[in-house]
Design goal:
Strand content: 35-45%
Number of helices: 0
Radius of gyration: 22 Å
Number of strands: 38
Structural class: mainly beta
Helix content: under 10%
CATH topology of the largest domain: Methylamine Dehydrogenase, Chain H
CATH class of the largest domain: Mainly Beta
Distance between the termini: 28 Å
Number of domains: 2
Shape: globular
Oligomer: single chain
Largest sheet: 5 strands, mixed
Length: about 475
């Protein structure tokens, strides 16, 4: 048996290749490819291929935000006016303990399982701010930012780093005695201290609505979407959020709502952004150069439809979901160029956002939060399901799994392995190794990765194999 041994230590790749040759290719600009799988048009089988939405609660009202614990995916937190918690994947819900009876608009989990919940007040009940729990939600501490007794800052966007558990970013707007102005605040120590890195124009009810950290940028590239009654837009930071520049001025559509904005997990230069609202048709625009130039897509939603969230499949970056306020969920299987409805079983049209995606029983899922109809669970579209070129996990052997970071992959003897990647649950490529025409029937890997759940992605000729990898 020919064995290729691969080592990843502190994200530095040390390779010892036995009886095989290594060739890492680059494009004309010197960029290393990340193995984006182009999905043929005939594979666009949605909705026949899956993703039926199933209601999970909390029933009886609006769910503004919902998050899944990355350490235990049966633990859910929902901002539904009051904060709710489920420890059984949404089968049952309880009011979260230790939090005030105020209006909670956003929730998220840190990468280490700690929780954040944002309260928009009222101040007469309890101080607004970011509440944090490090003990599974038993106790909470308000971490600010503290901007006076009246506070008067609304927050609509909350994001935390998938790599650094202490990095958290919030966005919204000041109002009242603070004067109206869009704001972004950053804390690099878990809410102990805050820096107000952005204060925008006080005109036109301008407000930050969405924040996104590029998972492949070491937390340096951050995007923000903002709305205005005159002209919406998008911001980009390349220094960790300390300075911001406009990137939405060349978008070739009229829009007042700059909504969700994300980048592809395998190509940081590809940006997908949602535009529309306030009398403008909701749509998606795409940039392939980091926000310099933009192109339109075929998505044409209602004149007041806003794009509240975008979700890219962690394994298949060509599969993209769009959450809108009038047209429910849309799906694209070609990287956002063309779209179709994805609403089977979804009894709501106003979608407030998606949870972080997660793995359950070897499939990827997410939750969709809605106004009026609680939340729904859906399986993410897998372009390999039911296709003649798809492979079953039984054809590939990965052992031991779970492991201490040392694994061996065994293939049938006639296979040609082209690429091996290890991907985090946030979509970041941690391991990227290409074999050019190398017939290997075995791979030995020492990952050097910390404990957690990862996805092992293997390209064999024209076939793609994904397996869940658990490191303890």
């Amino acid at each position: 048996m020919k064995i290729v041994f691969l080592t990843l230590l502190s994200q530095v790749l040390i390779l010892a290749i036995v009886a095989q040759s290594y060739n890492q290719t680059t494009d004309d600009a010197g960029n290393k490819p990340h193995g984006s799988i182009q999905i043929p048009a005939e594979w666009n089988l949605y909705p026949e291929a899956g993703n039926l939405w199933t209601p999970v609660g909390p029933f009886g009202g609006d769910v503004i935000g919902l998050a899944v614990d990355p350490q235990n995916t049966t633990n859910l937190y929902a901002a539904a006016g009051l904060p709710f918690v489920s420890n059984d994947g949404g089968d049952t819900w309880d009011l979260a303990t230790g939090l005030p009876a105020t209006r909670f608009s956003q929730v998220t989990f840190r990468s280490d399982g700690a929780m954040y919940a944002w309260s928009n007040g009222p101040t007469t009940v309890a101080q607004e701010g970011l509440y944090k729990s490090v003990d599974g939600g038993n106790t909470w501490i308000n971490k600010g930012p503290f901007v006076g007794s009246l506070f008067e800052t609304q927050v609509f966007a909350l994001t935390a780093s998938s790599d650094d558990p202490d990095l958290v970013i919030i966005g919204g707007n000041n109002f009242g005695v603070n004067g109206w102005a869009p704001v972004i605040w950053i804390s690099s120590n878990g809410g102990q201290e805050w820096i107000n890195t952005y204060i925008g124009s006080p005109d036109d009810f301008y407000s930050i609505q969405f924040l996104f950290i590029d998972p492949n940028s070491n937390d340096q590239i951050i995007y923000a979407g903002y709305k205005s009654e005159v002209q919406g837009g998008f911001l980009k930071s390349t220094d960790g959020g300390f300075t911001w520049s406009e990137i939405g001025t060349t978008i070739p559509v009229t829009y007042k709502w700059g909504g969700a904005i994300v980048c592809s997990p395998d190509n940081s230069d590809k940006i997908i952004a949602g535009c529309g609202g306030y009398g403008n048709n909701g749509t998606i625009c795409i940039s392939n150069d980091g926000g310099v130039g933009w192109s339109t897509t075929n998505l044409n939603m209602g004149t007041y439809s806003k794009v509240k969230d975008l979700l890219i499949h962690p394994i298949y970056p060509e599969v993209v979901y769009c959450a809108s306020t009038q047209n429910a969920v849309q799906i694209s299987t070609d990287g956002g160029l063309t779209w179709t409805i994805a609403n089977e079983g979804l009894s709501a049209t106003n979608i407030t956002g998606f949870s972080n995606p997660f793995v359950s029983s070897s499939a990827w899922y997410c939750y969709a939060a809605t106004y009026t109809n609680s939340a729904f669970r859906g399986e993410l579209f897998d372009p390999n399901v039911g296709l003649p070129n798809s492979r079953t996990d039984s054809e590939i052997t990965v052992f031991p799994n779970p492991s201490d970071g040392r694994i061996r992959i065994v293939f049938p003897n006639d296979e040609v392995v082209q690429k091996v990647e290890i991907v985090s649950l946030s979509g970041q490529i941690l391991f990227d190794f290409t074999l050019e025409n190398a017939a290997a029937d075995g791979l030995g890997i020492w990952t050097g990765l910390p404990s957690g759940i990862y996805i092992l992605r293997i390209q064999i000729k024209d076939k793609l194999v994904n397996q869940k990898l658990i490191i303890r």
